[in-house]
User: What shape does this take?
Amino acid sequence: VSELELLRWIRARLPRRDGRVVVDSGDDAAVLRLGRGPVVFKIDSVLEGVHFDRRTARPEDIGHKAMARPLSDVAAMGATPTFALAAMMIPREARASEVRRVILGMERTARRFGVAIVGGDLASHAGGLALSVALLGEMRGGSPLRRSGARAGDVLAVTGALGGSRLGKHLRFVPRVREAREIRRRFRVRAMIDLSDGLLRDLGHLCEAGGVGAVLEEARIPISAAARTMARRDGRSPLDHALADGEDYELLFALPAEEGPALERARLGRVIGRVERRPGLRLVRRDGGEEILEPRGWEHRFGP
Amino acid sequence: VSELELLRWIRARLPRRDGRVVVDSGDDAAVLRLGRGPVVFKIDSVLEGVHFDRRTARPEDIGHKAMARPLSDVAAMGATPTFALAAMMIPREARASEVRRVILGMERTARRFGVAIVGGDLASHAGGLALSVALLGEMRGGSPLRRSGARAGDVLAVTGALGGSRLGKHLRFVPRVREAREIRRRFRVRAMIDLSDGLLRDLGHLCEAGGVGAVLEEARIPISAAARTMARRDGRSPLDHALADGEDYELLFALPAEEGPALERARLGRVIGRVERRPGLRLVRRDGGEEILEPRGWEHRFGP
Assistant: This one.
């Protein structure tokens, strides 16, 4: 890959100075004018061999995933994502066309959610392809939707079907930016988290943060077609895939029980259980029996 | 490296909620309260085999460099750095002790310059060690110090000796955060850039942005001891090293000619030449002769 040529191509695509971009990418750092409220700040990475397989993934999807992962987190805070920077680590042998396709994928997703990529960093090296995207979001009214805040008696809901993301969704998921905004506008969201580590683990985080426990109803958990496909292949149950696979990038949230029916009528979420005082996670099976659930799934992040 | 153990260690070190950290690293993203002015936003990476040699560099220095590089850029905008996120890509075979030392180095440098690391992302993979640091800075009064703005007749100055950084300074340099603040407080800085790609190349950027040219005086260019050492080894001249090596992480800036003497008396910079209307870069040699300089040096970034 010819770095210089690539840099020229990239620079031409970055936004010029305007009302909100006080200093553009032609300088040492971008300078931005943000709104008055608190600022949400997030970084997330995708690495070859960990978050994607470069031999099979479309380059555009890799770029999409790099941008969509932090978008999902910023959405889960109830914020509006606005500006991004991208650091790219590029294998020396990569073709410029591949790198351009990665960038186009990243860009398209940014644009779709109103985010301006205002700069970044590019380095070619002997290793694999990796991207880190740093994202700024703005709280436009309202408080951040924290993980804590769920209360005993609240219902728990998710925005979509779970499990089996590795079969393809993990590369092409739609970050729930718009859904988060709509849910928050219409309902009293008490706590929210994005599902990246798997329902059990992320529900565990939500319960721990709120000092509460939860009970899930097997019959209500939306299980994806991909989870069923994987279950046929590996003998694990579809439910198990839905509970533990991770990379769903759906939202999990708690709201007052009386708002559950309206949420489902609005098709903004599916109620899957409820919050209770007693710590720990339980599952009510279809047959009415109960079991204790252990948090399990992915764990590879250390904070925002 | 045991990720879970490492994550626990890292989480315990991240700041808790306070006046400015509205939501801390225990959530999907950090939420911050910033001041009123524009916000400076920068990302920069260090990669094994490109920006450091993991076999010889101290892990603390690697962490330092990862934080100090974006600090240098934010300083060059005249901003006060305040919050950072760090994405770490860790070789699977790395020991937890090595990773902890990298983090400690990063942390120490952040603290020294008043920056709170409010979260990040950690992934282990089959490749080398790499870190991306995203940094927020705040303009506390005054406008951003842009690359453009130098005028014919201004003098050009640098904050320290140049060249030979690869012998060690590139891992241990002090980002000129305090100097930038002091220079800006006391002088009418017209343009500023940090020297990462080499004096010639970065001066080229500054001239291009301002639509001007520059003449340097050989006798005034501060040449580092390391540049002389390298020159003895490779037969290139010490001056050539000072002009083109890169990774100096000093500040290059333009100010009105009449302020040059006071700047030097205050020991905040050394005047090395002046800005002129005619485009291009020239050098006045010690013997009074002149030569045309071609911008050369590093080029591996695509914007802020």
About this structure: Residues 59-76 of chain A form the longest helix (18 residues). Chain A touches chain B through 74 residues (CB under 8 Å). Confidence is low (pLDDT under 50) at residues 298-304 of chain A. The two ends of chain A are 33 Å apart (CA to CA).
